[in-house]
């Protein structure tokens, strides 16, 4: 699974904006960020790839631009600052993970075992989602720097 939009803390509909996409293919519900060329991308290499400074939002739909030029297509993203998401975690999340900022293990997976205070902590864990003994999903918000 991926990041699934739940609601806005302040109510209302999510803000969806479109930005030029790098030459990549995206799936619905993945984290999107601005690459060094200024295009949205979902390419993930390690926990420092996506930071709060570069985070743009969560993809609202899949876009296939892998064979196209960077900027040829736009990527719609949910960029609501107070949006809440259900996100899969890489391992079993515990109550002690609530209230921490976590990195990502992939473009669609929160690393609940990696609480950080640096700009790599892009997901704020607010609540466990599931039975306490086997929680593999969390509810939280994205720590935005942009747009």
Global structural class: mainly beta
Low-confidence stretches: none
Strand segment count: 11
Largest sheet: 5 strands, mixed, barrel
Strand content: 35-45%
Average residue-wise pLDDT: 91
- Based on CA atoms alone, the radius of gyration comes out at 15 Å
Q: Choose one word for the global shape.
A: globular
Order of helices and strands: EEEEEEEEEEE
Widest sheet: strand ordering? 7-9-8-10-11
Q: State the helicity in percent bands.
A: under 10%
Distance between the termini: 25 Å
What is the tally of helical segments?
0
Brief account:
With 147 residues, the chain is mainly beta. It has strands spanning 4-8, 16-20, 31-34, 40-41, 55-59, 74-78, 83-89, 101-106, 109-115, 123-128, 137-142. The protein is globular and about 45 Å long.
Structure, explained:
With 147 residues, the chain is mainly β. It has no helices and eleven strands. The chain has strands at 4-8, 16-20, 31-34, 40-41, 55-59, 74-78, 83-89, 101-106, 109-115, 123-128, 137-142. The strands form two sheets. A five-stranded mixed barrel has the order 7-9-8-10-11. The protein starts with a strand and ends in a 5-residue tail after the last strand. The mean pLDDT is 91.
């Amino acid at each position: 699974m991926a990041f699934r939009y739940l609601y806005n803390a302040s109510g209302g509909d999510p803000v969806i904006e479109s930005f030029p996409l790098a030459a990549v293919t995206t799936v619905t519900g993945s984290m999107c960020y601005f690459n060094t060329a200024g295009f949205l991308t979902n390419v993930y290499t390690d926990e420092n790839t996506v930071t709060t400074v570069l985070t743009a939002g969560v993809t609202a739909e899949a876009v296939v631009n892998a064979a196209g030029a960077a900027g040829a297509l736009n990527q719609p993203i949910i960029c609501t600052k107070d949006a809440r998401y259900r996100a899969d975690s890489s391992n079993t999340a515990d109550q002690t993970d609530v209230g921490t900022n976590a990195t990502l293990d992939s473009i669609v997976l929160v690393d609940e075992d990696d609480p950080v205070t640096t700009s790599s902590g892009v997901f704020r864990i607010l609540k466990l989602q599931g039975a306490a003994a086997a929680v593999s999903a969390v509810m939280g918000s994205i720590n935005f720097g942009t747009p």
